[in-house]
Write a structure and sequence with these properties.
heterodimer; A: alpha/beta; Rossmann fold; 2 domains; 17 strands; B: Rossmann fold; 9-stranded mixed β-sheet; 13 strands; 29% helix; globular
């Protein structure tokens, strides 16, 4: 009986989501009175075993195959399926990210077992012998589902940002086990063939300040004052789905269930009503300031701070005040 | 080329999602329905591809008979054929859904020839399972990549563009292939007059599918704890600017 954490990495660099997964796997394993193990896919991830040890894994299964150089959803899914068949974990936990969902779904399909994505909680009484009850998010987090996974190996992903990563105190180096996985041509196609690396800088997902506009902005041109405020605050501009649907801004700027989930220090929502699909993308923000003409708008009632007024007048006034205080 | 797009009928909620008294479903008494956003974009992408390369776009859904409405919407925006796999109103689990869809796709292909592409939404807007497309592709024995923010045909292969934290990834799949599409790949068009007429006339084929229940069982739905916010109103109109900048300074945002 073990809990297996699936380590997400990009060509050997571990992603932050993996740290939460290891922490959750360790907590669940302790509750079950057992140990947690981890799996890395591809030899370029072998060097991650030290970090994995620090989180308290007792064994790291290193899946090896000459094909495993870059990411490939089918090859990764097949590798995970083979490691799961070989090590028979009770629970497999992957990251709640695009790659994490994809790899766990691939493995589940190949094992013909169920999978539950974006779990936020596991049954506190689970001891490994019964079906695993989980709480998972639906509608991007606007609804919660209690579900039971009835399978010999329970496959899940952990919703991102739900578990605070915590290293294990006094941990010892994990045992390394190399597993040579067999991959054939059927999984060879779907590797990354080419890539364009992002130029360093803040993105919507990582910026500490996001100034966002909704339908109330009115046009593509009317985003200029929001751009100006964002630049004064070293932030970026975001928008709601209504804005991208109107073609005012690119979808890469969209905050929400089908856009980007953000967690900035402050989210300044201008002329955004705050429909549930938008709210779930912004609700992790540490502070929310809503600027809206409607004091009853959903976003105004949910935000920590609000200004009732026309964004076209309020936003330039904020920029002017900042400039005034900076003496420019 | 022949393209199949699998879509899902989902409620179109506003500011709040309510649940039925038994906790089993979203209360849709006062809600309209729509095609799940990622799949709406998948339909648009398929239509753009046949406009360029010629061919047919078939839309398929597994859902209640009312889902004919969503199939007709897809036809009004350029899809040419429609297939419904009717089920009762209760959602099927992902394994069962994929099994049923894969069986019907195989039947359709026996009758009409292979689809070059089978498109799915990256995940459904309501249940957010992230797996029906992948399970179906595996049953069909075809490669699949999810998260497509770009999809073109290049030298007979499907070229997929996907965004990641590190930048943009390019995948190339020999067809027949499956692709999970994400919103943002395009801006879906509005129905045209010609499309509306076609959507009224289109014959919606029905396919029955037997599939076994999978191992993920819904126990109950619940609303997350309501976030109680005693919103601090900083003021009205542009006169609130000094109070806002005070706040930004206080929060350490304005350095």
């Amino acid at each position: 009986m073990t809990v297996l954490a699936v380590i997400e990495h990009d060509r050997g660099a571990m992603t932050g989501a993996s740290l939460g997964v290891m922490t959750a796997a360790r907590n669940l394993a302790k509750q079950m009175g057992t140990k947690f193990e981890a799996v890395t896919i591809g030899a370029n991830a072998d060097r991650l075993s030290e970090t994995i040890s620090n989180f308290g894994a007792t064994t790291v299964h290193q899946a090896h195959n000459p094909m495993l150089i870059d990411y490939g959803p089918e090859a990764w899914g097949e590798s995970l399926a083979q490691v799961a068949r070989k090590t028979s974990p009770t629970v497999v936990i992957g990251t709640g990210t695009e790659r994490g969902h994809e790899v766990v779904a691939q493995a589940a399909a190949r094992l013909d077992l169920p999978a539950a994505m974006n779990c936020i909680e596991f049954d506190k009484n689970f001891d490994g012998t019964q079906p695993l009850n989980v709480t998972r998010t639906r509608w991007g987090g606007s609804l919660l589902e209690q579900a039971a996974i009835d399978a010999p190996i329970k496959l899940v992903t952990l919703a991102n940002h739900v578990v605070e990563p915590q290293e294990e105190l006094g941990s010892t180096p994990a045992t390394v086990s190399t597993i040579d996985v067999q991959l054939d041509d059927s999984v060879a196609q779907s590797f990354v063939q080419d890539r364009v690396e992002r130029v360093a800088g803040v993105t919507l997902a990582t910026s500490p300040v996001v100034v966002s506009g909704g339908r109330g902005v009115g046009s593509a041109e009317a985003f200029a004052p929001l751009e100006e405020l964002a630049s004064l605050l070293n932030g970026v501009v975001g928008c709601s789905r209504a804005v991208t649907n109107n073609g005012w801004r690119n979808h890469t700027d969209q905050v929400g269930q089908t856009g980007t989930r953000i967690a900035p220090d402050i989210y300044i929502a201008c002329g955004i009503s705050g429909a549930i699909q938008h709210w779930v993308g912004a609700m992790a923000s540490k502070n929310i300031l809503a600027i809206n003409t409607d004091a009853q708008a959903n976003i105004v009632t949910k935000a920590g701070y609000a200004v009732i007024g026309d964004l076209h007048k309020v936003v330039p006034a904020i920029s002017a005040e900042i400039r005034r205080r900076r003496g420019k | 080329m022949n393209i199949l797009v699998c879509v899902k009928r989902v409620p179109a909620p506003g500011a709040r999602i309510n649940i039925t008294a038994d906790g089993q479903q979203v209360d849709t008494a006062f809600l309209g329905f729509t095609v799940s956003p990622h799949e709406e974009c998948a339909v648009e992408q398929a239509v753009q591809l046949i406009e360029k390369h010629g061919g047919d776009v078939t839309v398929l859904t597994l859902g209640p008979i009312e889902a004919e409405e969503q199939l007709r919407t897809a036809v009004s925006t350029g899809a040419t054929k429609a297939v419904l796999i009717p089920i009762d109103t209760t959602d099927w689990d992902p394994q069962r859904t994929a099994e049923a869809i894969a069986k019907v796709v195989a039947e359709l292909e026996t009758a009409n020839g292979k689809y070059d592409l089978v498109l799915f939404g990256n995940e459904s807007a309501d249940s957010c399972g992230y797996q029906v497309g992948i399970r179906t592709a595996l049953k069909l024995g075809r490669p699949i990549v999810n998260g497509a923010k770009g999809l073109e045909i290049e030298n007979g292969a499907a070229k997929i563009r996907r965004e990641s934290d590190a930048g943009v990834e390019i995948y190339k799949l020999a067809m027949p292939a499956c692709v999970g599409v994400k919103e943002g790949i395009n801006l879906p068009r509005y129905p045209t007059m010609k499309g509306r007429l076609a959507s009224k006339k289109v014959a919606i084929a029905r396919s029955k599918a037997e599939a076994t229940t999978g191992g993920l069982k819904l126990i109950t739905l619940q609303r997350p704890p309501e976030r109680v916010s005693n919103t601090v109103i900083l003021g009205n109109g542009p006169e609130a600017a000094p109070a806002i900048v005070d706040l930004l300074e206080e929060l350490g945002i304005l350095k």
